[in-house]
Amino acid sequence: MNMLEVKHLRVWDANEGKEIIHDSSFQLKEGTCLAIVGESGSGKSLTCRSIIRLHKPWIRQSGEIIFQGEHLNHLSERDMRKRRGKHIGMIMQNGMGAFDPSSVVGVHFQETLKEHFGWSKGEAEASMKKAMESVMLSHPMEIMNKFPHQLSGGMLQRLMIALTLVLEPAVVIADEPTTALDTISQFEVVEQFIQLRERMGGSMIFVSHDLGVVKKIADEVLVMRNGDIVESGNVEEVFTAPQHPYTQYLVSTRLELSHHFNKIMNGGV
Ligand SMILES: Nc1ncnc2c1ncn2[C@@H]1O[C@H](COP(=O)(O)OP(=O)(O)OP(=O)(O)O)[C@@H](O)[C@H]1O
Ligand SMILES: [Mg+2]
């Protein structure tokens, strides 16, 4: 069964009259992880934002977004808001952007969980405490009393993962969730994503420019270039036998890089 289906998605900039995504169609099967890869500006983030219909005012979209059999494009903005977070979770590149800078992070959790589940402050705190511990954040009560700027990028991403664990959305969309982090935090956050998938058994869209991470986490992959999907399929197959020249280029550059890295690690260049 398809958890999510995108049909003939077009996205354009109404100010400039320029089309950015041209007739993109794909499916996310239930319980699987679909990766989106491709060069900067190819339309990966706009594809993700189109699913939850959260764009800048001048960005427009057409086409069908079908989530669990329901056509989201027919929903009002009010009904769409109820789907965001609770049914379709989104974890962005920059954890800081997800939080209100003027309040401590605990307030964000209380408000979100009150809105979606009607929980009291105590109920929200108890659930968040447990979820934070499960993503290896120690001293959760102290963290909940901190402002976003007092926490590191890796901690903020783990907080978003913890909130996602509590909300249990049917689909999680993660748009380059590790790009803004240092290497060690990247590794840890990727591990948390793998565990998040295992625990929720849910479906996920994972945008990344790191083919190593994609191979580790995803079942299927879409390769985007200039607003088009140029190749798609099973990760293993696409990476071992890429058909499109652009995918071949992506895969060979990655091989070259890891080759170079291995040489350095083995002491000779
Ligand atoms: N808010 C916006 N207003 C106008 N144009 C935009 C806006 N957001 C994106 N674009 C344009 O749409 C194209 C695709 O952008 P998008 O952010 O989806 O790329 P991306 O694949 O996510 O790139 P990256 O890997 O750098 O995150 C770009 O050419 C960009 O200039
Ligand atoms: Mg992007």
Could you write a compact summary of the structure shown?
With 269 residues, the protein is an alpha/beta fold. The chain has a single domain, classed as 3-Layer(aba) Sandwich (Rossmann fold).
Please provide a written account of the structure.
This protein has helices at 44-52, 77-83, 105-117, 121-134, 140-144, 153-167, 183-200, 211-217, 235-240, 245-265; strands at 2-13, 18-29, 33-38, 59-67, 70-71, 88-91, 171-175, 203-207, 220-225, 228-234. It is an alpha/beta fold and 269 residues long. The chain has one domain (2-265): 3-Layer(aba) Sandwich (Rossmann fold), CATH 3.40.50.300. The strands form two sheets. It has a six-stranded mixed sheet with strand order 6-7-8-3-9-10, sandwiched between helices. The model has no long low-confidence stretch (mean pLDDT 90). Bound molecules: adenosine-5'-triphosphate and magnesium ion (MG). The site of adenosine-5'-triphosphate has 12 residues, from α1.
